[in-house]
Write a structure and sequence with these properties.
Elements: H1 8-35, E1 39-50, E2 54-65, E3 68-72
């Protein structure tokens, strides 16, 4: 591989790892409320398509609280 060439598979894996770490931080903030039964969260898969990376699956976090729904959905690595 040339020095300036981008390894898109590596870029995708780094992005997915970042998303996973972000969700872990969000869970750590929400868990005290979840443990008290004040909210729930779950994950669903969605498919993203990016020009250079291609098609891949990523988690969407859905938080339910006080009759409201908050969706954290990654839009893409770039």
């Amino acid at each position: 591989m040339e020095e300036n060439e981008i390894d898109w598979e590596e870029e995708k894996n780094e992005w997915l790892n970042f998303v996973s770490q972000f969700y872990s931080f969000v869970e750590s903030w929400l868990n005290p409320y979840k443990n008290k039964g004040k909210l729930l969260y779950k994950y669903e898969k969605t498919q993203l398509i990016e020009d250079c990376i291609g098609t891949y699956n990523v988690d969407v976090m859905i938080v339910d609280f006080a009759g409201q729904k908050l969706t954290l959905e990654p839009m893409g690595s770039y």
